[in-house]
Write a structure and sequence with these properties.
- The chain is an alpha/beta fold.
- The chain has one domain.
- The longest helix has 14 residues.
- A 6-stranded parallel β-sheet has the order 4-3-8-7-5-6, sandwiched between helices. The protein has a two-stranded antiparallel ribbon with strand order 1-2.
- α8 links the parallel β7 and β8.
- The structure holds uridine-5'-diphosphate.
- Uridine-5'-diphosphate (UDP) binds next to α9.
Amino acid sequence: MKTFPVLDLPVHLSDNYEDWIIDRLNQGISTHIVTMNSEMAMAAQQDSELAQIIKKADLVVPDGSGIVIYLRRRGEKQARVAGIELASSLLEKLGSLGKDCPICFYGGAPKVSEKAAQAWQKKVPDINIIYNHGYLAGEELQSWCDRIQEIQPKLILVGLGVPRQERWITNHRHLAPNAIWIGVGGSFDIWGEVKERAPEFFCNNNLEWLYRLYQEPDRWKRMLVLPRFFLKAIF
Ligand code: UDP
């Protein structure tokens, strides 16, 4: 798949990431997917380990209107692919395969990944999910890793926030070497109904960040990088 550099980080260009992912899953090829937004691209400017992880990922999708604007300004008409929507669509398709396609949710506060798994179970009754919250340590974490190794999920969604989830995937993908691994940020919070996704108006008008700031005012410091990214995108 063709890539285009965004602040020196490769973003894959496609109008159908999903078929490519399902193809990899069917072939059992280990795949790390990064869903990149402007905040992450800026974080990678200061964090060389994160930058390396993004460069080595098998697929980097443009999650965030900033990335899409950056690409458009350079002649690449790429549509935005929100990570949560990509993950939802994969869950709908793969969930119906039931036992033939074990799925793993890892991350979020205690009870949240459970609520998220239950919501998906309601939506796709055959879905086969193992889940755990993202605050495990010591023996608990070890036995969770053992469980992943034993079950061999085919799709592993990791919601520990950036860059923790990207690091975790890099360090643990050997546990399930035929799986698709995706860092999904706060998606479990949304599926578990702890947080709300921005209404369509905000998503369609490049204002998702504004809604996010309203829901999570503590993010303001992290968001200071956004105007800087925007300037880099424009010029
Ligand atoms: N989280 C976690 N373990 C940690 C730190 C964070 O499971 O040690 C979870 C947190 O509960 C939240 C998600 O990671 O569900 C971070 O979501 P956020 O929307 O901040 O993701 P980002 O914007 O960093 O991708």
